[in-house]
Amino acid sequence: MTAIPQQVLDRQKSALNTLAATQATLFAGFEKLVDLNLKVVKATLDEVAQTSQQAIAVKDPQEAAAFATALVQPGAEKALAYGKHVYDIVAGVQGELAKLAEAQIAEGQQQVADAVEQFSKNAPTGSESAVALLKSSLATANGAYESLTKAAKQAAEVAESNLNAAANATFKAATEAAEAATKAPRSRRAA
Question: Which of 69, 103, 129, 154 sits at a 20 to 30 Å CA gap from 120?
Answer without folding.
Answer: 103
